[in-house]
Design brief:
Length: about 250
């Protein structure tokens, strides 16, 4: 591994499992001090333990990304503990779907908008406030989805609308704040080896068989592959990449 993030502090939301945990572990492996945030303390503590077992430094912060005070507290905790906020990854998200839009309960619609859109906007705003006040600026990566700006499927219209908003939010914010030294991009995963990509009643073996038949690559992406894309965009290797939406989807939308 390289040490692209030595002496830098990274904040990752939704870091208690899945893609978020993989991203946090990847930053730590490349030298970052990592703040892991999420609603439930126990899985966050497990992420911290995994990082510390690698010899890294991490801090768990219990926070709800839909609450402005929690978004501010995550950033404040990073700065108070490690002295800066150099990288942020807004990964927390939920999926509520499986039915046509007309049959989607309003509560599910609101939950997706609250978490997937407002839950990106509030941390993003707090992160920008801090980063633009630092001489070194910072880099932010939002996790969108291929469902939304890139493709749509029946039964996921509400989710797609929320993730399309993340893509638009990313591009707009990138233009608003690159002049202040804050570089913002997005990663749009397709199917990944997490429970979210399992269809109702489907096993992991079933998913593998489906992927072989339907995805050009013949398999879903690993969480490590999504993390690698995030770290690229957050690193100095991508210093001229601004407002992009990087698709990582095994060729599904090619």
């Amino acid at each position: 591994m390289t040490s692209r993030f030595t002496d830098r502090t990274a904040l990752v939301t939704g870091a208690g499992s899945g893609i978020g945990r993989a991203i946090a572990l990847a930053f730590a492996a490349e030298g970052a001090r990592v703040v892991v945030a999420g609603r439930r303390r126990e899985p966050l503590d497990e992420t911290v333990r995994l990082i510390e077992d690698q010899g890294g430094k991490a801090l768990a912060v219990t926070a709800d990304v839909t609450r402005p005070e929690d978004a501010e507290s995550m950033v404040r905790a990073a700065v108070d503990t490690f002295g800066s906020l150099d990288v942020a990854v807004n990964n927390a998200g939920v999926f509520r779907g499986g039915a046509p839009l007309a049959d989607l309960p309003e509560a599910d619609w609101r939950t997706q908008l609250d978490t997937n859109v407002t839950g990106v906007f509030l941390p993003l705003r707090a992160e920008i406030h801090r980063m633009r006040a630092q001489p070194s600026g910072g880099a932010i990566v939002n996790i969108a989805s291929t469902f939304g700006a890139h493709t749509r499927v029946p039964g996921a219209t509400g989710y797609a609308a929320s993730k399309a908003a993340v893509s638009a939010l990313t591009r707009g914010a990138a233009l608003d704040h690159i002049g202040e030294g804050v570089r913002i991009n997005a990663v749009s995963p397709g199917a990944v080896e997490t429970p979210m990509s399992l269809r109702p009643g489907e096993t992991e073996a079933d998913r593998e068989e489906r992927a072989r038949a339907t995805l050009p690559l013949g398999r879903v992406s690993s969480t490590a592959e999504i993390a690698a894309a995030v770290l690229y965009l957050a690193s100095d290797d991508a210093s001229s990449v601004v407002g992009t939406d990087l698709v990582v989807d095994s060729g599904a939308t090619a």
